[in-house]
Design goal:
about 140 residues; 6-stranded mixed β-sheet; 4 helices; 6 strands
Length: about 140
């Protein structure tokens, strides 16, 4: 049986963000995960998973999605494009999350960039979401 391609690895990871077993299978132990920005202490105060998690491996992704699911209810997650060349994989799409605190829903585009090594492990990634109200204010 042949090894999964980088795009198949990332697709499987995104389909299993709440499965620690799958995340541990697909993410390198020393992977760096960047969520929303490289480092913004004000944003991290309200979204503790934001920022750079250098060489934190699968646990950074497990913790991020566990925290996201405490703050938000995922109502829709649609991948509109997923493609790659070599070790690089890009994903673009849209999602709808509802704040568990405010009860308000927001729809947002997202983009994800991942690197997948020759062993089929995600070694790094950067995730960007734009979660804004109509007036451009951040809302949790």
């Amino acid at each position: 049986m042949s090894q999964a391609s980088p795009t198949e690895v990332v697709s499987k990871l995104l389909a299993n963000t709440l499965s620690p077993a799958v995340i541990n299978e697909l993410v390198a132990p020393d992977a760096t995960y960047i969520s929303l920005n490289y480092g913004n202490t004000d944003l991290t105060k309200i979204l503790p998973y934001a920022g750079t998690h250098a060489k934190a491996g699968p646990q950074a992704i497990i913790d991020t999605f566990a925290t996201v699911n405490k703050i938000w209810t995922n109502e829709a997650f649609e991948i509109q494009a997923l493609f790659g060349t070599g070790e690089n994989v890009a994903v673009f799409g849209r999602f709808t999350y509802r704040s568990n605190t405010l009860g308000k829903a927001c729809e947002s585009p997202f983009s994800i960039w991942c690197k997948v090594d020759a062993e089929g492990k995600v070694t790094g990634g950067n995730k960007k979401y734009n979660v804004f109200k109509e007036k451009g204010e951040f809302e949790v």
